[in-house]
Design brief:
heterodimer; A: Rossmann fold; two-stranded antiparallel ribbon; 11 helices; B: alpha/beta; Rossmann fold; 2 domains; globular
Chain lengths: 322, 331
C-alpha cells in the first residue's frame, strides 16, 4: 500500500528529525562536547524513515554505527540518544555505549554495532526467537554495502534462508565501504549475491521514502506470514564523511553536490512530493520549526545532564543472581 | 541415592532436565541432532524435544553464536555447542565483541542468558587446531563466566546453573573426561558457579587446578601420600568468577602452592593465581608458587611429542617434591 499523505508527512517529520539530530551532533562534536566516534547518516534518512515506518514497535532492529537515524525512526527517545553521544548518565546506555551502541529493547532496538556485519546474525537470532516463541514479530537488520563482504553477513543470511526466519536484510548501498568505492570491493551486484542464499531480493531507490516503505512493507508482510527472509538493496549516498575528520579524498565535491541537489537529496525530494500532493508550504514550515525546537530541547537536555558517577564503573556488567 | 554415570551422561541429564523445566531453553550446534554431537552429549535430545529445540546448524560458528546472542537478548535461553574450543577463534566476534559486551554497552538494558558449551584439551593426538586449552582467553575478557567441571557431579550441577544464569557462560568440558565416571544424585540439584571445591584435603602442599588436571592431581596426591606428603587438591571449577577466598585460604593453610593446567604457561591462569597469592598471602608462603602447564608450543600430534608438551603426573609430582625440599633451585 502506498503511503497516504498523513503517513508521508509523518515520514517527512522523521527524516527532518534525523537530519537535524545528526547536524546538531556534528556541531557538538566540533565544539568538543562529543568525543570519540561519530558516523553521521546525513543523506540516508529515507531508508531509516521509510523502512521503520513499516515496522511495529515490538519488531526487532539491529543496525550499524551509522544507525542513529534508524534508532530514532524506530522510536528511540532523541534526548536519550543525544545524551548518549555526550556520554551522559541520562543516555540510553547511561553513557557507556556511545555513538556506535545505541540500544533500547523497549523499542526493539537490539543495538547499533561497531563491528561491520555483526548485526546480521544477531537479528537472525531475534527472528529465530520470535519464531520459536510463536510471536509474529519480525526482525530487520540494516547494514552497508561493505558488510556484504563479511563472513558474518554470509553466515547470518544463510541461517535466515535455511531456517526461513522472519528477517528483513536491509542493505544501504551508499557506494563506499568506509573510504573505498564499491567498484574496488565486489564484482557482483549485492542483490544478486544475496539471491544465491535462496531468498527473494529487491532493489529500491533508497532516497525515495515512499518506495523504501513499500518494499519494506512487502518484506514485513512476507516475514509475518512465515514466508521467510527478504534482502533489500537500497541505493543511497552519505552526504558527510565516513566519520568526523574524514578527508574525503576518494570522491569529488561535484559528486557530493549532485547528491545534495533537488533531484537526489531525500528530504528535498519528500518535501517536493508533499507539495505536489498539495500540502501547503505553511504546513511544512510548521513541522520544520517544530523539529528544530525539539532538537534544541534535546541538545539542552543532553548538555545539562550529568556524566555518570565513577561508582558506575562496575555496574551493568553482570546480572546478579536472583 | 547416588548412581555412577559418565561425564557426558551427566551433561545430557542437565540439558534434558533444563529443557523440560523451561520451554525457552534450546540447544543449537553442529551435528547435535540425529548424530547426538561428536561426543554424544546431546544424544536422544532430538527424539525428546524435536528439531525446533534441538537445532542443527550449518558450519557457521560465528553466525550461529551471533544468532544465539540475538535469541538470548529476546527471551530465549540458547545453549550452543561449539564442537571444539579451537573453533571459538572462528566465533570470536560473537563471543568477545557481542555476548561479553552487550549488557555493558546497553547500560544494563539487555541481558544475554547464553551458554556456550565446548570441549578442549589434548592427549588424543588431535593436533594443534583440535587440542588447545583456551580458558585464559575467555577469562581475560570481562563479561563472560568461565566454568570448567572435572567430575560428572560437578558437570551436571554446574551446567544446570549455567543455563539458569542471566549472564553469558562459557562452559568448557574436556574431551578425555567424557568417558570418566562418577557418582551423581538421583534427585535434582544445582551447584553454584563461583565456588571452588576441595577435592582432597591436605596440609603440606596445595595443588590448585581445574578440569581434567584435577584427576591427575588426585592421582599424584595418592602416590605422594605414601611418601608422607599430604597434598590438598583445590578444584577451582570456575575461573570467572574466581573463588579468591578458597584460593587464599588453602594457600595460607599449606604455605606451598602448585598451579596445574593444560593450557600454555605464558599469560596463563597459573600466572594469575600466582600473582593473586603473592599479593595477598606473601608472608604466609614457605616457597614460591610453582606452575605445571603445557609448554609454549602448538600441540604436536606424535605421541612422544604431545606427552612432552602436555603436563604429566610426573611433572606435577616433581613440582610438589621440589616445594617440599630445601633446594630452592629445583623445578
Amino acid at each position: 500500500m502506498p503511503l497516504d499523505t498523513p503517513q508521508l508527512l509523518a515520514c517527512y517529520r522523521t527524516m527532518l528529525l534525523i537530519r537535524e539530530f545528526e547536524e546538531r551532533a556534528v556541531k557538538l562534536y566540533k565544539l568538543g562536547e562529543i568525543k570519540g566516534s561519530l558516523h553521521p547518516c546525513v543523506g540516508q534518512e529515507a531508508t531509516a524513515a521509510g523502512a521503520c515506518f513499516a515496522l511495529r514497535r515490538d519488531d526487532y532492529l539491529t543496525c550499524t554505527y551509522r544507525g542513529h537515524g534508524q534508532a530514532l525512526a524506530k522510536g528511540l527517545d532523541p534526548k536519550e540518544a543525544m545524551a548518549e553521544l555526550l556520554g551522559k548518565v541520562t543516555g540510553c546506555s547511561k553513557g557507556k555505549g556511545g555513538s556506535m551502541h545505541f540500544t533500547d529493547p523497549r523499542v526493539g532496538l537490539l543495538g547499533e554495532n561497531a563491528i561491520v556485519g555483526a548485526g546480521v546474525p544477531i537479528a537472525a537470532g531475534a527472528a529465530l526467537s520470535a519464531h520459536m516463541r510463536g510471536s509474529d514479530q519480525v526482525a530487520i537488520t540494516f547494514f552497508g554495502d561493505g558488510a556484504v563482504n563479511q563472513g558474518l553477513f554470509a553466515e547470518g543470511a544463510n541461517l535466515a534462508a535455511v531456517w526461513q526466519l522472519p528477517l528483513i536484510l536491509f542493505c544501504e548501498n551508499n557506494q563506499y565501504s568506509e573510504m573505498t568505492p564499491i567498484t574496488a570491493t565486489t564484482r557482483t551486484p549485492l542483490h544478486v549475491r544475496a539471491a544465491s542464499y535462496g531468498m527473494p531480493t529487491v532493489e529500491v531507490d533508497g532516497n525515495d521514502v515512499e518506495a523504501v516503505y513499500e518494499v519494506t512493507q512487502a518484506a514485513v508482510t512476507r516475514a509475518r506470514a512465515g514466508a521467510g527472509p527478504t534482502f533489500i538493496e537500497a541505493h543511497t549516498y552519505r552526504l558527510l564523511g565516513h566519520m568526523m575528520g574524514d578527508t574525503e579524498v576518494y570522491r569529488t565535491k561535484a559528486e557530493v553536490a549532485e547528491w545534495r541537489g533537488e533531484q537526489r537529496d531525500p528530504i528535498k525530494r519528500t518535501r517536493a512530493a508533499l507539495l505536489a500532493r498539495e500540502v501547503s508550504s505553511a504546513t511544512l514550515a510548521i513541522i520544520e520549526a517544530a523539529v528544530v525546537a525539539t532538537i534544541n530541547e534535546v541538545e539542552q537536555f543532553a548538555r545539562a545532564s550529568m556524566l555518570p558517577d565513577v561508582s558506575e564503573v562496575y555496574e551493568d556488567i553482570w546480572v546478579a543472581a536472583a | 541415592m547416588m548412581r555412577e554415570i559418565y561425564y557426558n551422561q551427566a551433561l545430557r541429564e542437565a540439558l534434558h532436565e533444563e529443557m523440560n523445566r523451561d520451554p525457552c531453553v534450546f540447544v543449537m550446534g553442529e551435528d547435535i541432532g540425529l548424530y547426538g554431537g561428536v561426543f554424544k552429549v546431546t544424544e536422544g535430545l532430538l527424539a525428546a524435544f524435536g528439531p525446533q529445540r534441538v537445532r542443527e546448524t550449518p558450519i557457521s560458528e560465528n553466525g550461529f553464536v551471533g544468532a544465539a546472542v540475538g535469541a538470548s537478548m529476546t527471551g530465549m535461553r540458547p545453549v550452543v555447542e561449539l564442537m571444539f574450543a579451537d573453533f571459538a577463534y572462528v566465533a570470536a566476534d560473537s563471543i568477545f565483541n557481542q555476548a561479553a559486551k552487550m549488557r555493558s554497552m546497553s547500560g544494563g538494558r539487555v541481558t544475554v542468558p547464553l551458554v556456550i558449551r565446548t570441549q578442549q584439551g589434548g592427549g588424543r593426538g588431535n593436533g594443534a587446531q583440535h587440542s588447545q586449552s583456551l580458558e585464559a582467553m575467555f577469562a581475560h575478557i570481562p563479561g563472560i563466566k568461565v566454568v570448567l567441571p572435572s567430575t560428572p557431579y560437578d558437570a551436571k550441577g554446574l551446567l544446570k546453573s549455567a543455563i539458569r544464569d542471566e549472564n553469558p557462560v562459557v562452559f568448557i568440558e574436556h574431551k578425555l573426561l567424557y568417558s570418566t565416571r562418577g557418582l551423581v544424585p538421583d534427585d535434582e540439584y544445582t551447584l553454584p558457579i563461583g565456588q571452588a571445591d576441595i577435592k582432597r584435603p591436605g596440609s603440606d602442599v596445595t595443588i590448585i587446578t581445574y578440569s581434567r588436571c584435577v584427576l591427575q592431581a588426585l592421582a599424584v596426591a595418592t602416590q605422594l601420600a605414601e611418601e608422607g606428603i599430604d597434598v590438598e587438591v583445590l578444584d577451582l571449577r570456575s575461573l570467572v568468577p574466581l573463588d579468591r577466598n578458597s584460593v587464599l585460604a588453602s594457600a595460607r593453610k599449606t604455605g606451598r602452592v602448585v598451579v596445574v593446567h593444560e593450557a600454555h604457561r605464558f599469560c596463563g591462569v597459573g600466572a594469575e593465581i600466582a600473582a593473586l597469592i603473592q599479593e595477598e598471602a606473601w608472608d604466609e608462603l614457605h616457597a614460591p608458587v610453582r606452575r605445571v602447564t603445557a609448554k609454549d608450543v602448538p600441540i604436536p600430534v606424535a605421541p612422544s611429542l604431545e606427552q612432552a608438551v602436555l603436563p604429566q603426573e610426573h611433572d606435577i609430582m616433581a613440582a610438589v617434591r621440589c616445594l617440599m625440599s630445601d633446594n630452592k633451585n629445583c623445578s
